Amino acid sequence: MKYYPMDENKTLIKSFIEEVFNKHNLTAADKYIAAAPGREGFKQMLNRPFLAFPDIHGTVEHMLSEDNLVVVYLGLERTRACFKGVHLLINQ
Q1: Dist CA 50 CA 3 (whole Å)
Q2: Domain ranges of the chain
Q3: Sequence-distant (≥ 6) Cβ neighbours of residue 40 within 8 angstroms
Q4: Hey, what CATH class is 6-89 in?
Q5: Does residue 66 have a pLDDT over 90?
Q6: How far is C-alpha 51 from the geometric centre of its chain's CA atoms?
Q7: Which residue, 23, 4, 1, 22, is CA-closest to 74?
């Protein structure tokens, strides 16, 4: 198993959150997830909340790392939702 420096792991996770999650760029997931059957399933899983909450955005609240493990507490924000083609405005 290859170990990366902790700061490098944190930078990689932050980049993934920004590129894939916040920009809703599912194609960018290919840079972060190994080519495997699970990669397409992961992208399909993320597509549903992206469609339901078109402006969903994650903010890293806390991040811990040890060896090759990174744990993230991600705060989510959204103001709009779409359910069965009906667009809703969520009160903040």
Answers
A1: 32
A2: 6-89
A3: none
A4: alpha beta
A5: no
A6: 14
A7: 22
